[in-house]
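Let's practice the habit of predicting before peeking. Look at the sequence and jot down your guess about where helices and strands might fall. Then scroll down.
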Amino acid sequence: MKNIFFFIPVAFLLIFLGQYLVKNNAFAQVACPSQTTVGDTFATLVGEIQDNGGDPNITAWFEWGTFSFSLTNRTPDQFLFVPNPPQRFCATINNLQPCTTYFYQAAARNSAGTSKGSVQSFTTQCVPLQVSCSASPNPANVNQTVTFTANVTGGVGSYSYSWSGACTGFSSTCSRSFSSAGTYTATISVTSGNQTQSASCSVTVNQPLRPPTVITLPPVTTL
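Done guessing? Here is the structure:
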């Protein structure tokens, strides 16, 4: 009789745990999008357990990288209970490069072994390239060094520069001085991935300040 009273609460506990696991796995499936979704620097990878192979205790993950033949990155293992497949699972990867193609595949393991899905690919969203520039100091004096600076956002995160007009060079800044007063304009052209944008900025160059000119007048001549 004592054994009966012992096993009854244990049985209820096992039933409760089973319902809890099923409910939470169902919630995890609902929380995952129906397909892989992609942003500019992140992506949520989605896979699906279509058959549990007779063992509902499954470890799942994703492998991904920038080459289809070398998926060198791996998401953390997810420990799933899948009594009634199909069931989706997902993982979000961050710190990706915009406008870049990545490859990935879903993988799962139970007590019988490991299987992997086909390799898929996605391209992160391209962030619009925005370019402006400025000159400092502005205004400047004749023969004073002026630095033109490119201000860039967006693109794929790496940039090539080309200055023209009042200053020439191939870096994010360009410096020179001017020997005469006037207004001088430099143009910067920036390329990032397949995007190119240009911007122009001007500096006003003044004659340098100088001491005032002064004379001493002679006294009035008297006869």
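How did you do? The chain has one helix and 16 strands.
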